[in-house]
Every structure is written in C-alpha cells, then in structure tokens.
Amino acid sequence: MNKRLYIQDVATRDGFQIEPAFVPTEDKIALIDRLSETGLAKIEVTSFTSPKAIPNLRDAEEVMRGIRRVPGVEYTVLVPNVKGCERALACEVDEINLVMSASDTHGLANLRMTPEQSLEQFKAIIEVTRGSPVFVNASLSTAFGCPFEGEVPPARVMALVQQLLDIGVQGVTLCDTTGMADPAQVERLCRDALRRWPEAVFTAHFHNTRGMGLANALAALNAGIDRFDASLGGLGGCPYAPGASGNICTEDLVHMFQRMGLDTGVDLDRLLQCAADLPLLVGHDVPGAVLKAGTSDRRYPKPAWMEG
Amino acid sequence: MNKRLYIQDVATRDGFQIEPAFVPTEDKIALIDRLSETGLAKIEVTSFTSPKAIPNLRDAEEVMRGIRRVPGVEYTVLVPNVKGCERALACEVDEINLVMSASDTHGLANLRMTPEQSLEQFKAIIEVTRGSPVFVNASLSTAFGCPFEGEVPPARVMALVQQLLDIGVQGVTLCDTTGMADPAQVERLCRDALRRWPEAVFTAHFHNTRGMGLANALAALNAGIDRFDASLGGLGGCPYAPGASGNICTEDLVHMFQRMGLDTGVDLDRLLQCAADLPLLVGHDVPGAVLKAGTSDRRYPKPAWMEG
C-alpha cells in the first residue's frame, strides 16, 4: 500500500472558468505559487481558449508567465485548437491538455465537434507540437456516461482511447464529466484500459455530483490508476445540476489517500491552508469536507465536567 | 454482483434527535409510514431514552405505537437502559439497539460509562429480554477512531465484539461515529470481524464527515458487509464539527449500490420522494447529493440551438 500516487489540481482552470466573478490575475498567480509548494504532481494552470469564450481565463499568458515554476511540478494548460497550442508553446508549458467528448451529443453541445472532428483537430495540434518537448494529454469527457445520451458503451471509449494513442497522444484522462460513474463501472473501465495499454499514462477525473466521487477514486485506485485530477476546495460545480457538487475535492482526496497509508507526495497541511483562503478568493463557500471538519487525526478536548 | 444488501434508515432517531426543532409526532409517524413502503430492511424508529435527555424523542411510545408496521420491515429502537428496554418491549419492537463506545473517553463523555460499565448494563438489559422474540443489536461507537483519544486499537474493538457476543448480543454495528474511518482501515476491520464471527450479524455505520462516507461503504462492501446504516437526506450532523456532514445519506447509498448493479430491495424513486419532503419537515437544507443532482440516469435536453 505504498505505491506513489500523483495528484493533479484543476481548480484554477476547471474551477475558475465557471466562477461568477473574474479572479484577479495576481490572485491566480499567488494561489498557483502556493499550490506549487504543496507537493502536487501537476497543476492545470489555465486554458488557452478564446477570451470571448471564457472571459474568466482571458489572462492565460499573464498567469502562465507570472507563476514561479517549481522543479518537479508539471504545469499543464487546456488547449482547444491550433492557435491555443501555439500560445501555450510560446509560454513553454510542460503539457497541453486536449479535450474531447466520448459522446456525439455532448461533443456537439460542449465543443461543437463530434469525437471524430475532435480527433482530426487533435492531429493538427499535435503536428504543431513536433520538435517541442511538450507532453500531450487528452481528456476524454463523458467516458462514464453522457448527460444527453446516457450510457456511453465501453467499447466506444476504448476505441477512442486507441485512436488518441494512435495519433500521438501520450496521456489519456478518463473523465466522469457530470458525475454519472459508479464504482463498479469505474473499476471495470480503468482495469480494462490499464490492461490494454500498460505503457500509456492514464489519469482518472471524477466529479462528486452524486456523492460518489471519492468512492469512484477508490475504485480507480483498486483498478491500478495512480493519477487523479481533483479541484482545490471541490471548486467546479456542475453546469447541468445547479446546487450539486462538481469536481472531487483535492484536499479530501489527499486526506483519504494519506489516511489509507498511501504516498501522494502532498503536504496536506499546506494544501489545506491554500483551500482555507479559497472562499475569500471566490466569494462563496466551497464544498470541501475536510476543510470544515478538520483532518481525521484532529483531537477534541474532553468535556469540561470530565476534567474536574 | 447480485448479493442482496440490507439498508437501514436511522434518520428518525439519529437525525431527529439533534434537530434544533421538535418534529411533530404525526409528521414522524407519516414519514416512517412512507419509509416503510420503500423496501428498506430496517428503520430505527426512535429512542426509548429519558425525555429530559433527548426532548426531541419524548414521543417514543406514541411514534412506535402510531406507525403502520409493514411485514418484512424490521423496526428497531435505541435502548439506553433497563427501563428503556421495558418501554420498548411493551411496544413490541422487533429489535433493540444498545449503544456503547469502544473508547473510554467517548464512552464517559457521551454515555457516562466506560465500555466495561456499558457491558455490565447490557447484561441486565438482555436479562429483561429473555422469553421475548426481540433481536438484540449493539452499536459499537468509535470503532474506527475516537475524537478524544484518536486511534482505537483493532484488537480492542475485536475484544469488545467478542464480549458483546458472549453476553448474548446477536448483531453488532461497527460505527464510525465521527467520520474518522478510511477505506483501508474499514476493509481490514470488517474483513477481520466477518472472518472471526461468520455467524454474527454485522452492520456498518459510516459518517460522511470528511467526504469518505460512500468510499467507506464501498470498502465495507468489498470486505463482505451486507448491512448498512444510513440516514435519509444525510440528516444527522456531527456534534464535534459544526457545518460538517453527519451520517451517510440513505438515498445516495442506495443510488450508488443500485448503479453498481447490486440489489438493495429499495425503490429509489419512493425513497427520493421521502427525502424531497425532508427539508420542509426539518426547516433546513439536507446534505444528500442525489436529491439535488438527480439520479445518474437523468437525461438533459440538448441545447435549443442543436434542435434547429
């Protein structure tokens, strides 16, 4: 039980992009700099998308160039197209993260592209990365279910993973985009993927929309997954279910793994200090549980009458 | 994966007892009557404790005598002492649930009894049940950790289980009273208990205080546990951590197991209808996630522009 796990925080991209208010550039940089000192394996810094599409991340270059990059931490950015890739490469990111859907309807609704169209675009993006040391990751949305279509056949997901690897993608993130996955499904799909492509770098990305986020992470762990996306404070939300939680919470995930005796490389106290300042930064409460309850090793004083 | 699971709701006891407001007797009865029609295996109706100690449950007899008992559903009540047992037996309950702590400090703080003193009292209570068909369950609080003392050695927990079975207790609930358990610990302890006492009836009782509730339930399931306590809407709270969640949420647990293809015997739609009325009944929002997000098979309409 001492396998090293890799924890990747997506709050400053996946979280901040849907916040009602723009988080000031200097606050983003300060938060990422603090996260860089926690032992996280990877930080999804921002998205090199159109400022019109996602105004909250219109400061992508400023943030990427403003942060203090800590050796050993990978800095990744979401890249939606060739132009975004060129901008990302100009900032010398460690990794670009491409996003596509496993289901046609979600792809069209969210990206205005079918999976096949996404794959074509990925080829053009990967062409642009030739000669650069950048790592190419692809996040496969709705890999565990589509909010429009329902079940996404595992064979479909596996075929898309194969196509991604064929065109030169190095890492694949299996995303439960709207929190539809259950632990049995997660264990089956992850086990199958790891068995078929033992050399590929797989990440699991879960949402806590229906309370199963950490149970799904546990199932993925049991299947052999060692890389996990999560979001500080549980920031992120679910656009389809107002009031429901979004991404699993980084500090809750790290806390669980740490209590299980697993090595995440993360300093939980430092991470919790980052999370503690998040409500002030975004102007609202965040879903994280450990932030409210304290870690499991928290001790309470005996009732006063017992001390007498 | 089609083993039958038994889901036991504790909201009307564990939840209502700490609510700021008294839930009217007729509302309690109406809720229990609705829960009885959902396929739940067991309902912890109330507590036969002193009305002064827990004023919210001062109507224990009225509630227990007022409900419509559905064949196949077990009705259990918490019983703190001989007098409570006599009151419970007079109401012809199916089960009495005795409560003790696995740790001295929590026992003294919560029940004013060490585990050894609790065991002595249990003997007297069990004496009173002789000749009655009532099932005797004991809930072992802090079995996965004590908020005052920290770790509770597994050997200590196992020794107490042995003592409980020796004095005639038929079922034992391993309780993570303040949400300190982690999945690795849960799997070890539950596996060990089931291996040592294959004939005993074990229940797992988890809190979601640190977000691990359903992950711990999954770990207990993997260990072979088939009986789970949970609370409608996640009602319950944690007296030690204001703002933190309490009991795992019944409908979230049933939803997870159902999505995994497991048989809980519960009609999730009916259960969700009960949960949906809970906020009105208690006057505040409840932590349940599926109630907010809908079940995983919920489908969303395509964006309007895609229909054109």
Automatic annotation (TrEMBL), chains A, B:
UniProt cross-references to Pfam families, sorted A to Z: HMGL-like
Record-stated family: Belongs to the HMG-CoA lyase family.
Domain of life, per lineage: Bacteria
Originating species: Stutzerimonas marianensis
PROSITE patterns associated with the record: PYR_CT
GO biological process assignments: ketone body biosynthetic process; L-leucine catabolic process
Residues annotated as domain Pyruvate carboxyltransferase: 5-272
One GO MF term attached to the UniProt entry: metal ion binding
CDD domains xref list: DRE_TIM_HMGL
SUPFAM superfamilies reported in the protein's UniProt record: Aldolase
Keyword Lyase: yes
Biological classification of the source: Bacteria, Pseudomonadati, Pseudomonadota, Gammaproteobacteria, Pseudomonadales
UniProt KW keywords: Lyase, Metal-binding
Name assigned to this protein: Hydroxymethylglutaryl-CoA lyase
